[in-house]
Design a protein that fits this description.
Number of strands: 10
Largest sheet: 5 strands, antiparallel
Strand content: 35-45%
Distance between the termini: 29 Å
Shape: globular
Helix content: 10-25%
Strand order of the largest sheet: 5-4-3-7-6
Amino acid sequence: MLPSNENLPPHLRIISKRARLEIPVSEIHFIEVFDWKCIVHCNAGVQHETNMPLKDIQNRLPSRQFIRCNRSFLVNLDHVSSVEKDALITDGGASVPISIRSRSEVRRICADYFWQKADIT
C-alpha cells in the first residue's frame, strides 16, 4: 500500500528536455513508460517526456484519482470515458491496456470511483 498522498499540490513537477515543468494534475490523461522514459499524456495531445521513474510519479499524484492498470501505465480516472474488458478508454480516445492479473481489481476501483464521483455531483 502506498503512503497517503491526497494533500499533494494540484501540479506534477517534472523535468522534461532540461526544463522544469508544472503540469496541472487535471490535465494529465495518463502516463506511460516507453523506452525507459515516462511520457505524460495531457490535454490536446500534448506529451512531456521525463526520466523520472513511474513509481516516483505515482507517489506524487493523488492515489484515489490515478490507477496503475499495468506495470507501464498510470491513468487519471477523471479522463476515463469507458472501461472495456482489457483496456481503459480515455476521453481523448486512447486505449490503455489492463493487465490480466489486475483486471477485476481495476474494474472494481473504477466502478467505486465513478459511483463516488456521481454521488458528489
